[in-house]
Amino acid sequence: MGIEEDKELILDTLKAKKGKTKFYLKDFNGMFPDRKPRDVKKLVNQMVSEGLLEYWSSGSTTLIGLKGAGKQHDAEDEE
Q1: In the chain, where are the structural domains located?
Q2: Share of the chain residues as helix, strand and coil, in percent rounded to the nearest 5
Q3: Which helix (H) or strand (E) holds 23?
Q4: Are 28 and 40 in contact (CB under 8 A)?
Q5: How far from the centroid of its chain's Cα atoms is residue 55's Cα?
Q6: How far apart are CA 28 and CA 43, in angstroms?
Q7: pLDDT single digits (tens) 10-25
Q8: Which residue, 52, 55, 60, 68, is most buried by CB atoms nearer than 10 A?
Q9: How is domain 3-78 classified at the architecture level of CATH?
Q10: Which long-range contacts (CB under 8 A, 24 or more apart) does 56-61 make?
């Protein structure tokens, strides 16, 4: 698969999970079992840079989700 196909796979997978909007990096590693975790991290970082995904931190844990998705994002916009 090429990079664009990988991005589409990530976006389609995240959009299909209705009840969950934030994911651990290990969840992305599971989408690409034949890839090294470092390569998957680079792909996710690239998608964050492009504005497709965003990081969210609870202070102790960093999660990744679709940009603008989730209840937490709505609450942050109101402040």
Answers
A1: 3-78
A2: 55, 15, 30
A3: strand 22-23
A4: yes
A5: 8
A6: 10
A7: 999 998 988 888 999 9
A8: 52
A9: Orthogonal Bundle (1.10)
A10: 56/22, 61/24
Place of tokens 């989730």: 70
Among 2, 1, 11, CA closest to 47: 11
DSSP result, 10-71: HHHHHHH-SS--EE-HHHHHHH-TTS-HHHHHHHHHHHHHTTSEEEEE-SS-EEEEETT-SH
Q: What is the largest CA-CA distance in the chain?
A: 42
Backbone angles phi, psi at 23, to 5 degrees: -135, 150
Distance between CA atoms of 16 and 76, rounded to whole angstroms?
24
Look up residue 71 and give its amino acid: K
pTM score, whole prediction: 0.80
